[in-house]
Specification:
alpha+beta; Immunoglobulin-like; 3 helices; 9 strands
Length: 158
């Protein structure tokens, strides 16, 4: 009886310890910033490491950055007036329980209008939310993605 009690107590303590580290919401935050001196846009995507690692379980390569680039090209689609905007994966860094992914465009004309589909991690979580912030000349505008099929349009004009 003493062994069962000790095992039960230990099992509950282990469960409480590990469950306290799991976040209860699914969220990503992305910043796209226009850099006028370079004629480029830069993107930073912030995601929880445990969610990202789960999404990468189906990856075909062992290379982290290669898998990230492939995944992000599939789940983040942005086009200007008539053209798809191509993003180059620059790299990533980890800070605690967050990954930061960095991307940038080639030199382009500033796109006044954008069409965006962003469904990062939505294949995993029905409650996934993706916030996308656009920054130009110190002004920020935002889009909020709640549905994996959602396509939103963005215009810098007032």
């Amino acid at each position: 009886m003493k062994f069962r009690y000790s095992f039960f107590t230990w099992a509950i303590l282990v469960w409480m310890t590990f469950s306290s580290f799991v976040h209860q919401f699914h969220f990503s935050e992305t910043l796209i910033e226009w850099i006028p001196r370079d004629g480029k846009m830069q993107m930073t995507i912030k995601v929880f490491t445990d969610d990202w690692d789960l999404a990468m379980l189906q990856a075909s390569s062992a290379d982290f950055d290669e898998n990230a680039q492939r995944y992000l090209n599939e789940h983040v689609k942005i086009s200007g007036s008539n053209d798809t905007i191509h993003w180059h994966y620059v790299g990533h860094e980890r800070d605690g329980d967050l990954y930061y992914h960095y991307l940038e465009t080639d030199r382009i004309s500033f796109p006044e209008e954008l069409t965006v589909q962003m469904n990062i991690l939505m294949e995993l979580y029905g409650d996934q939310k993706n916030l996308l912030n656009f920054r130009k000349d110190g002004q920020t505008k935002s889009l909020y993605f709640l549905d994996k099929n959602s396509i939103q349009h963005f215009n810098w004009a007032p």
